[in-house]
Specification:
By secondary structure, the chain is of the alpha+beta class. It is built from 16 helices and eleven strands.
Length: 415
């Protein structure tokens, strides 16, 4: 069971106490991500994540790092399409310090002009690094191919053009619009005293007040499958195929995870064995499902010699068609289901994983799921249900993305 409490201002506090642990993971989650940005704001959610570590009214950037290092804790953050999380992992006795630092950077960042200009350089280098990593680039491109010119397809990092145009005023406008108590969750997992947590939350977050109007409409709508390509001077051609799947929170995600394991989610998968082990056409070939609040997609990726790219695409499509038509055997289904269950159980041994799952679900779906509920849903998955969902997903028209040498030629052939 979970501990839950809502502050008067609307901040939700939720925790999963594990008394036999000596550590605790704590995260401040806010509904701020590239999904909610206007085109000219693209990348500002991620930029704010960087800026909140650059100093507050009470702490310099160095103070922030040194105070957590002094107790052997970890402090970090990440930005996704739909949320940003600032988190810490510490020994249980240092939870008060972790909550103090997290709330301080979350609410009291200085947003100094000089720091903003300096950090632009850091983020521009991050964008350049992603551009120089074709595997990253093709995953960005497949989002655009699958969802078109919709917010969900915008890159989390933004572009060189948008980042260079950020000003202190534009950053603060976005911050005040999205950083609101009602769109904030404080999540914990590990060993803690719940009464102390409530007292600390009230002390550090109780004065947090809404200023802006919030996220607004951010629905994602189906678009026609597309083929996109980007020619780059690379040794390999990197390719992705994408198929529509269920959104976050759907019970279809468990059967989807099962058939994904057989398709390309494990070393024994059809794609890994066929393309890498039997033919030696790729070093990296895999598939994975990804879900958002109102959409989802299954992505297949491979990196291969440009001369072999057409054959790799053919083999992927052939395997997809075969699985859609023939379904999973009983042995394949049982093995994949066991993999899914074991992966979930092993992940539960990490307080960070538990906190992440708890915070993300509470923020984006407004509910929570116990370990027992998740395992019960996994155990309830049937081969018939899995094959039916797999047939629907893998029979859907797919989008293609190609990045690298020969991408244009292959892309034009696929259109």
């Amino acid at each position: 069971m979970f501990d839950q409490f809502v502050l008067d201002n609307g901040v939700t506090i939720i925790g999963e106490r594990i008394p036999h642990f000596r550590s605790v993971s704590v995260g401040l989650w806010v509904a701020s991500g590239s999904q909610y940005e206007q085109p000219v704001e693209n990348g500002v959610s991620h930029f704010i994540e960087h800026m909140l570590f650059k100093g507050t009214q009470r702490r310099t950037a160095r103070d922030i790092a040194e105070e957590m290092d002094a107790v052997g804790g970890a402090l970090n953050a990440f930005t996704s399409k739909e949320c940003t999380c600032f988190y810490a992992k510490t020994v249980d006795q240092d939870l008060p310090l972790a909550m103090d630092i997290l709330s301080d950077i979350f609410l009291h960042s200085r947003m100094d002009e000089a720091d903003i200009e300096r950090e632009k350089g850091v983020v521009l280098e991050e964008i350049a690094m992603a551009e120089d990593t074709p595997e990253d680039a093709v995953h960005e491109l497949i989002m655009l191919a699958q969802y078109g010119d919709q917010p969900i397809a915008r890159p989390i990092l933004g572009s060189e053009e948008t980042v260079r145009a950020f000003t202190r005023d534009s950053i603060l406008r976005y911050y005040h619009r999205l950083y609101r108590p009602g769109d904030t969750v404080l999540a914990l997992a590990g060993n803690y005293d719940w009464e102390q947590v409530k007292e600390l939350a009230a002390r550090h977050l109780g004065e947090f007040q809404a200023v802006g109007e919030g996220r607004g409409d951010f629905a994602t709508y189906p678009v026609a499958p597309t083929t996109l390509f980007r020619e780059k001077d690379t040794e390999q051609l990197h390719l992705c195929l994408a198929y529509p799947t269920a959104p976050m929170g759907s019970d279809e995600l468990y059967p989807t995870a099962v058939f994904n394991s057989v398709l390309g989610g494990a070393m024994s998968s059809h794609l890994f064995q066929s393309i890498r082990e039997e033919r030696g056409l790729a070093y990296s070939v895999y598939s994975y499902p990804n879900s958002y609040t109102d959409c989802g997609m299954l992505t297949v990726y491979a990196g291969t010699n440009p001369e072999n790219a057409r054959e790799v695409v053919r083999l992927i499509c052939e395997e997809v068609r075969s699985m859609a038509e023939n379904g999973l055997s009983e042995q394949e289904f049982r093995q994949a289901l066991a993999q899914l269950k074991a992966s979930y159980i092993l992940g539960q041994e990490s307080t960070s994983n538990r906190m992440n799952a708890l915070g993300r679900r509470k923020l984006l779906l407004g509910n929570e799921q116990t370990e027992e509920d998740a395992l019960r849903k996994i155990d309830a998955v049937t081969r018939e249900e899995t094959n039916a969902i797999m047939k629907r997903v893998l029979s859907s028209p797919c989008s293609y993305a190609f990045v690298g040498k020969g991408a244009q030629k292959l892309g034009e052939e696929m259109e």
